[in-house]
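As a warm-up, study this chain.
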Amino acid sequence: MKNWSVPIQTLLFAIAGLASALPAAAQEDDRAAERAGMVQEQLINRRSSSPRGSSGAPPPSLFGDASRGSMPMVSSRDLDEHLRIQNGKVLDAMRSVPRHWFVPANMQRDAYADRPLPIGYGQTISQPYIVALMTELLDPKPGAKILEVGTGSGYQAAILTKFTPNVYTMEIVEPLQKQALPRLQKFGLGPERVINGDGYFGLEKIGPFDGIIVTAAADHIPPPLLQQLRPGARMIIPIGPVHATQRLVMVEKDAGGKVRSRSVHPVNFVPLTGGPRAPDKK
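Now compare it with the structure written out below.
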């Protein structure tokens, strides 16, 4: 019979090492579990009775902009199906990117809550559901060149890197750009990809882009961004007035350059600043 005895000192060292590793591992597992719960409850099992949009917006129209007259009746089952995130790659990205890395220290407890959170300078990190919805609508392909207008905390850009390394993101508020850069470097985006600038005008020298995502509300679709959108590509942008419910709009440019758009979901975003009417523009 083999002797399976272990020297008591070796055993004690092993137990001590395991015990010292448990708190950090448990903490990381707790956050991973929160992300998994967030994905399951907020994205996969989402119901029409749960909070909507970025801050309690009404249910989405399944047939475009509900403000344009009467809409066909839809069942709650159809509405629930419309609300759910169904792209498996989007769900995997939302599970893998730690949202708490992008949330201020005093907001850590709410990092995986179903709502936007303030990040300073009058800006917010978007509600997880809206980040997932905009990503699903954009449907980025491997290797695609993507432009994000409105870096904010950097969370949306980090999600996009799970689809393609060719992500460019612009932030007009320089302190936010500086804060986001070290976070996004962990996802392969350096200073040449995390840019302080006026996103209304895009990045003409780098375009055209296979997709553009705008994370602030404009009162119109910026013409420079349309010009930089490659034929066959999409732009996802909130359109509407400040301090009111806006429309999340999917813009598509066909192979011939013809542009069409449709409203997808009511949202509430901070306003897109800059552009030709900005105070420092002549």
